[in-house]
Structures are given as C-alpha cells and as structure tokens.
Amino acid sequence: MNNIATIILAAGKGTRMKSDLAKVLHPLLGQPMLSYTIALSLNEIKAEKTIVVVGHQADQIKENFKDLKIEFALQEKQLGTGHAVLQALPFLQEFTGTVLILCGDVPLVKVGTLRSFIDTFRGNDSTLAVLTAVVEDAYGYGRILRSEEGWLDRIVEEKDASEEERLIREINTGIYCVRASFLKEGIKEIGKENAQGEYYLTDMVGVAGRRGLRCSAHMVSDPTEVMGINTRIDLATATEALRLEKIKELMLSGVTIIDPKTTYVDRTVVIGKDTTLYPNCTLQGHTRIGERCVIEPNSKISDADIGNGVTIRSHCVITESRVEEGAAIGPFSHLRPKSEVKAKAKIGNFVEVKKSIIGKGSKANHLAYIGDALVGKEVNIGAGTITCNYDGLEKHPTVIGDRVFVGSNVELVAPVTVGNQSSIAAGTTVTKDVPEGALTVSRVKQKNIRGWDKKMDLHRKKSRKKKG
Ligand code: UD1
Ligand code: MG
Question: To the nearest whole percent, how much of the chain has pLDDT over 90?
Fold first, then answer.
C-alpha cells in the first residue's frame, strides 16, 4: 500500500512469560512472534518504513532481525506506549502519510484486516483510528467509548476506568492508524497523569478531540486475530490457531492429513499434492516435501528437501538433508545434517547417516552408521556396518564405489576407498583401500575343535569333585 510507515512496539518486558528470552522472540509455529508483524509490514503492506521500538533485551531482538529492511528505535525506559511511539518519530521526520502502529505481541492480525482498516481510515476523514474487538472478558484492556454517531470519543484504561466503563466489552487492540503530521505534533501534549503514571498513546484521542479532529474505531470480526500474547498460555493458544490454519491450508491444497489434531507443520513448510501425513508428525523450518509422499507416524523432519514419491516410515528424524524421488527411509532412521539420499535408495531400520551421499538405488537396510561417506550407486550396505570416521581428533572420509557389496558387520576405518564392484566379506575390518572388483576378507580363520562338549563334561565333573 502507498504512503504507509509502520511502527511496531516491542520494548515491553513481558514479565508474565517468566523467561530469559525476549517475549517477542518466543516462537509461534516455528518463527519468532515478532517476525509476524515485521513480515506483514515488509511483505504484505509494503510499508515505506518499518520501525521497531525495542527496549528490554534490545540486543537479542536486533540480532535476530539484523538483515531486514527495518530500523530500530531504542526506548531505554519503558514509560508507556505514547513514550514508545515518540522514540520512533525521529525516523519519520520526512514522512507525511499514514502511520500504522502495531504491537509485536499481537502477531495474529491478518493483512486483509489491516488493509480494510487502513482503507476505512483513509476514507472516513478521521485523523486517528483504532482497531477494536468485542471480547468476552475485557479485563486489562483499554475500553472504547464511542459518541452517539459512533465516532471514537475516548479510550479508558482498566486502571483508570469507572465501574460503568469497565462493563464495556469493546476493547482497544493496540493497533492504530494515524496521520503522521498529527502524530508528530499531538504526541507532545500527552501527559502521565493517570493511574499508572505512564505516557498513554491512547491519550492521542483526547488530543485530537481538543483540536476538533475526528477519531474513529474499526471493529474486527474475529477477536482471536488481535489477541495479545502475555503468558505461555496465550502463546499456546496462538500457536494452536496458527497450526490449525496451516493444516487447513494444506488440506485444501491437496495434502491428506489423517489426524489434524496431532500434526505439526511450521508455516514455512511446503508440501506437494497427494502427499499423506500420518498422526504425530512434526515438519519444521524450510522443509519441502514433494508430491505423492507418505510420511508415517511420529517422524520429525526439519529443514529437509524431500522429493516426489518418497516414503518416510515411522519414527524417523531427518534434519537438513535431501531425499530424492522414490527413496524410502525408516522405520527408525536418522538422517543428520548434510545427508543426501539419491533416487530409489533405501535407508532402513536403525540406520544413522551423517554428512554422506547414498547413491541411486543403494540400500542400507539395517543397523548401520554411515558418516562422512560417499556411497556410489546400487551398493548394498550390510547390517551392522560402521564407517569409523573419527580417530579421536579428526573426521575422515569413506568412499565406496558403485555396485559394491558390503557384508554384515563390516568396519570401514576412514580414510579409506573401496573400488567399484568389489565385495567385502562379513565381519571384515577394512583399513586399506580395496581395489576395484576385489573380495576383501579380514577375519581370523575359523577353527572347528571336535568333541568340545565331551571335554566340557569332564571338566565339570572334576570341578564338582573338588568342591566335595
Ligand atoms: C495497551 C493499551 C490498551 C490496549 C492494550 C492492548 C495504552 C495506554 N493502553 O495496554 O488500551 O487495550 O495495549 O494490548 O496504550 N510497549 C512499549 N513500551 C512501553 C510500553 C509498552 O514498547 O513503554 C509495548 C509493549 O511491548 C507491547 C505494547 O507496547 O507490545 C502494548 O503494551 P502493554 O503494556 O502490553 O499494553 P497495555 O499498556 O497494557
Ligand atoms: Mg502495560
């Protein structure tokens, strides 16, 4: 939208979160709370300027959003919402349009709501507008007092309200539109003669009234959109609202979700059509899942790229990895960061892969550790195979060629290279490179001692006699 600057208030302490982490950095469906209002301003409203007012844990917050096109105003002491906005004004010296004021702890507000709020404000010739909601329990909020014609007369805070005023259920959401010229002038008139001794931004309504300027109130239809987050209970409520929204969006786009109640998908996750998610899956971060995949129960996938037609069986953990078309993972597999499983490969029960490439059509079906390895095409990795990649000081690579057969219980002591089409016998400890096409065996030769059972019998009898 044109000619808009946003001020996001985020300097408050968030005492009720009882946390060392700044309140606005607590994650909501995988992303810090404050990122929602910042994203609204930058990507949806496309404001000319976005100014975030920080105070408590300012450095923590700045660090989190340092690469974005936003500016930070510092409010050293939290003397109230009016004082907070005042700190942002030096950044708006040249700006003459509409200032949109948002709160960092009111993250669920929708862009459609803000657009119609701004449009109504601009169309109704008021100098300030407040977004309001009608709620069941208005305790703690500023109450909206309207004139007979419906204009906004006053906002009265809980602590300053009369008993009668406290009965009002239309509340101030803390979101405002205000003309920049009026904001810059009027804010100087705000005092702190109130129950909390704070500079109330809401007093701007009175300032406008004294100048004969009109203020308006615009009501949202769904109060959950404007819920403020103050406690971890609120955090869970807001997360649940966002989670359901995401789940519905996925289902409408062609993803089957067997149990919407227990499926957790971050906002940032992308899933292709005809993919099925079974109960208790958690998909996080920048995960992308292709079409026609099956994700079985209890799997956790973070920042991974999963191709089309992949099956992830139950109880898998996949992090920062890539799985190509038609591959199958699990049950009980762990793909640690920088793993790449090529097309149609299989990683099975209790197999851990770390920083390795598993070539096309290769299989590691049972109980293996593959770390810092390059595994070629159509390789069979037997049960119990381990790449010994760590010598206590450094990590070393294992390179396995195409169509290699690695028998069960093989140790590959890295650095080591295994040539194409070679075979490694079960139980072998590979310490030297294996030439192409060779069979490698390193085990103690088997010895069969006949009549061992009779020898043992004799031994037992003797020992019984001794004991008497
Ligand atoms: C404020 C409103 C109240 C409204 C409520 C909605 C005032 C006087 N009252 O209440 O009418 O119903 O929000 O939630 O404005 N903040 C700062 N610096 C400060 C104080 C607050 O940046 O000095 C920020 C907070 O981080 C928060 C927002 O402003 O994001 C609102 O502050 P908060 O203390 O939660 O709201 P109230 O003062 O209770
Ligand atoms: Mg307060």
Answer: 97
